[in-house]
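Here comes just one.
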Amino acid sequence: MGGPPLVDYGATSARPGWDSLPGSLQHALAVALGTEIAEAGPSVGSGFTGGFAAPLKLADGREVFVKAADDSMHPYRAYQREAEIVPQLPPAVRVPEIITTAHATDKDAKWFAIASAKIDARMRGRPGRPTTSRWSRRTAKRWPPPSPRAR
């Protein structure tokens, strides 16, 4: 093989759309946000879970990014943990602010949603690709990549 496989990191996950979320969760999220959901954008294709992840436009003009999963999915607990940890991070760690969370039950499933500030960003491509950003240069100086193995 000639190196690692090429992966399109912008299309790594098949995620459900807003309409597939139970009405009880949609309602709980609207209540937690304090306004109606005016429009749901398309689910993102990046990431490594099958949980819901999409931008929402709210009736009051705000935009948020929401992730949600039911308790049969791995991200259910991961999203809860994110909601616990992110608000405790120091200000120097630049992450989107957690706006609110919502819980709901539908049939036999428990649901959890986390809404964060929407930022205009996208996945930057393959991990490990060289970049010219100041952060990448500083990181490389502090933690240089391992030397290639002798063949």
